[in-house]
Amino acid sequence: MNDETGARQLDASQRDGLLAALRDALGATAVLSGADIPARNEKDWSTLAPQRPLAVVRPVDTEGVANAMRLCAQYRVPVVPQGGLTGLCGGARPIEGAVALSLERMVGIEEIDAASATITVKAGTPLQAVQQAADEAGFFIPLDLGSRGSCAIGGNLSTNAGGNRVIRYGMAREMVLGLEAVLADGTVVTNLNKMLKNNAGYDLKHLFIGSEGTLGVITRVVLRLSPKPGCTMAALCALDSYAHVVDLLGEARRGLGPLLSAFEVMWPDYWNTVTQRVPGVRDPIGGEHACYVLVEAQGMDEALDAPRFEHWLETQMENGVIANAALAQSLADVHAFWGVRDACAEFPQVLGPHESFDIGLPVSVMDDYVSACRDALQARLPGVVALFYGHIGDGNLHIVSCVPGSSPQPKEAIAETVYTLVQRFGGTISAEHGIGITKKGWLPCTRSEPELALMRRLKDALDPHHLLNPGKVV
What we know:
single chain, alpha+beta, Uridine Diphospho-n-acetylenolpyruvylglucosamine Reductase, domain 3, Alpha-Beta Plaits, seven-stranded antiparallel beta sheet, five-stranded antiparallel beta sheet, 14 helices, 18 strands, globular
């Protein structure tokens, strides 16, 4: 018996019995074992080493998930839920002896209700497919991530994904009206609510959103749809101090109001790396500046909203808040501007092995943190590369760091430097990517012991044998 998970070590007969029972319940093609297990199911996008699971189970519906969970609970075998496997914290990485529960075949749009402005989807559906379905129906899904073509909506919810437009629309949690989840013992909890107002008892969906598959497996979800924007305006701005960045954010909130949809900040280390080293990315501004900001606004009437955006931009330049700027003249320009911000996807080719961090900080101390972190990393690891960028308008900073030529990379030294300073500056170790395995040891930097104790009580109540994604988060 494993004391941490309540799981047991299966002998060959028990293992064969579980696999046979799973195949009987879900069909032979739904259960892969041994050499048939795909390499992709052995890891996610974290830098953790791959781990082959006992089996990969691929149900096609909620009933299949429930049957798999019930059988694994009967045999006391851990289950690790998997979606698009784009997580960066090891939350979907299998553990030894576990069954990987992949939702890759649970895809599709079940319903679009125009009157309620909702869309009901299966949890394995890629985010981009949900966006496209909403668009074709005349609506808009504001949740957007660089991994949109690969990540699954269930995984987005299990980590409470943020993305590019949190400043206007909020985190993924804000877009969910109802969901269905399967508990560790196979119990199905269904509440596919479509109503904005529903205060009938505890709002149970929030137990599963952001819990990274440790309390239940999300199988279906009802999302709010937003009106499709009629126009998108964007500008890349160069500023000569971080104080001007804070001023610009305030002016954007006041001057653009609900039109403001993104406020992305890039420090010079990031800007110079992507504009000088990433193929296809160009610098539309020129010159050396303290910070670079991508401001995006989405309106409903281009004839009214585009001139308003241009006037606001001109005013900020006249007032000395912005030193220089490039205004998008077309949707292609908007995409090109976002290409500068999203060029971080090319860092594996440009930088080689590196560590990525997703932290949250009060906006007022963001630049002080960047300076302190850069100096501390350089003092501890001479020659280190550290790039800073992020959403900022919602308090989210991303850090990419590595020591060129070092093998292996000094992961622990970099992480200790980053997270120790996060605690000192009153921030959070995870703004939108979750905790998984890689951040678990640092969670006390952000959460108090009473909070951690309550998390453990919830885990014990819903998963008393700790079979569902064990060892993750808490």
